Amino acid sequence: MNSTLLNISGKIDSSTIAIYDTVSTIANQLAIPFVVVGASARDLVLHYGYGASIQRATVDVDFGIQVPDWQAFMLLKEKLVDKGYKETRAQQRLISPENMPIDILPFGQLEDEEANIQWPPDGHSTMNVLGFQEAFSSARVIRIQDDPELDIPVATPEGMVILKLIAWMDRPSDKRDKDAKDLIYLFNTYEKVPEINKGLYEDQELMEQYEWDIDLAGAHLLGINAKNIATDQTYKAIYELFMDQHESLTRGLLKEEMCVHIDSEYERNEELLNAFVDGFTQYKPSQ
């Protein structure tokens, strides 16, 4: 985990802070490690942390929790219900007392060999949680409140982009368009991170490769850095998509779904995706 503190105190509304406070307190009491993921992680890091424009309103808060079994997952849910959270038909979803949906997404020892989890009680509903370990391991600590201090681990852009690619491959076709559009947002905003921006301008060779187009160079560097945190299993899954070796999905389909208005955006999005792929598919050292 990146221990460098990013302080965004004063930028988050009190209702959202209350959610982070409650989940963090209960998870810590139960010794359950967690990481903020999804759109809420994107906004905390890139918008509130580094000033990138907000893509769309965040309507829920997502947490990845590292648990040994379903009993630990259920216990955390029970503790949240005791604090006024309401259960829903979806196993992972609760409604906070502030009326905001939150998703609690388990990963860890309850995964099978293909990184799938089988939701109880019958296991018929499955979810792929590939990439959650990387998002957790590479998370950055963000201070969302100074008084009293409240620090939470949040997925970095490298972790986010891995999760978004896996989600796009895992979701039904009618639910994955937002994942594709989130990828473009990450490609376009990665250079907003100060240390990334500084590194890009110091890498003259990379910038010249993209004719000093900082967004394209940033997408390429994001690919390199995402590759460097990916496990071999995660890397293989994403590599197969990019090389059109996936059983049903293609890189071309991903390009299409990244576009809101295909005619005006397809060419630019193709350039951004190609830059990311070029970075991601460079030689990957074995882990």
Note the quaternary state here: single chain
Number of helices: 12
Structural class: alpha+beta
CATH topology of the largest domain: Beta Polymerase, domain 2
Q: How many domains, as an integer?
A: 2
Report the β-strand fraction as a percent range.
15-25%
Number of strands: 10
Radius of gyration: 19 Å
Measured between the Cα atoms of the first and last residue, the distance is 18 Å
Uncertain residue ranges: none
H-E string: EHEHEHEEEEEHEEHHHHHHHH
Set down the secondary structure blueprint.
Elements (H helix, E strand, L loop, with lengths): L1 E6 L6 H16 L4 E4 H12 L11 E7 L2 H13 L3 E2 L5 E3 L5 E8 L7 E3 L7 E3 L3 H6 L2 E6 L4 E5 L2 H14 L6 H13 L4 H9 L1 H6 L4 H16 L2 H11 L8 H7 L4 H19 L7
Parallel strand pairs: 1-9, 3-6
Antiparallel strand pairs: 2-3, 4-5, 5-6, 7-8, 9-10
Helix pairs in contact: 2-5, 5-6, 5-9, 5-10, 6-9, 7-9, 9-12
List keywords for this structure.
Beta Polymerase, domain 2, globular, 287 residues, alpha+beta, 12 helices, 2 domains, single chain, 5-stranded mixed β-sheet
Report what the structure shows.
The protein is an alpha+beta fold and 287 residues long. It folds into 2 domains: 2-155, 2-Layer Sandwich (Beta Polymerase, domain 2); 167-280, no CATH class. It is built from 12 helices and 10 strands. Strands 2-3-6-5-4 form a 5-stranded mixed sheet. It has a 3-stranded mixed sheet with strand order 1-9-10. A two-stranded antiparallel sheet has the order 7-8.
